[in-house]
Amino acid sequence: MINTKNLNNKKKMGLTPQERKEKVAALREEHEDYFQTEGKINALFIPKMAYRPSGKDELHVSFFPSELEKEQDIYTEFVSIDYDTEDPKRTLYLHKYNPHWREEYEMITSSSGFQRHIIPVSELKVINDVTSRGNAIIDFANPSLPDPDSLLPSSTAPDLNVAVVEKLDEINQTLKQLITVINKK
Q1: Secondary structure element (H or E) that encloses residue 30, with its range
Q2: Residue 37: CB partners within 8 Å, gap ≥ 6?
Q3: What is the DSSP letter of 123?
Q4: 108 beta partners
């Protein structure tokens, strides 16, 4: 017979430090290509719960003072209390280091006495998600896309139709790959 009392107690106790470390490492794997590509090998990655604190209108994340005292940008992903991802798109967010965090971010104290600073999710920058990984993000202020009018067929450019069809085929192949990646998640 299974002792459900012990199972219930374990559930109330939460994850052990080792379990938490393993889950964070597994979550980080999803974003490791970004960190490697951007040269952010030792990026501070701290998955967090996004929640609406009492009396607030928008979602927030909270950081312990010890996390903010590291004086680094913090990358995060939204997770449950058990460090299970809560975002099917596995969005990676950036909280840019703010040297004025002590004054600017409200301090809250949990019922168990832990103090944390809350930061509105709207202050986080979306870095990427599974639909954009491996693709350059378009900078609309400095687009490198061709002028759409230059892609229109004309009597002076008979090979242009072939080029357009080839580009559409490339787009189709990329979409197929994206669907494969999404279906694996």
Answers
A1: none
A2: none
A3: G
A4: 116
Cα end-to-end distance, the chain, whole Å:
36
DSSP code, position 79: B
Pairing relationship of beta strands 115-120 and 107-109 according to DSSP bridges? antiparallel
Q: Which residues does the chain have with pLDDT short of 50?
A: 1-11, 136-145, 156
Sequence-ordered alpha helix ranges (H) in 14-94: 17-29, 32-37, 65-68
Nearest to 30 by CA among 102, 89, 107: 89
Q: Which residues contact 163 (CB under 8 A, 6 or more apart)?
A: 151
Q: What pLDDT, in 10s, does the model give residues 83-122?
A: 999 999 999 999 999 999 999 999 999 889 999 999 999 9
For residue 179, give the 3-state DSSP assignment: helix
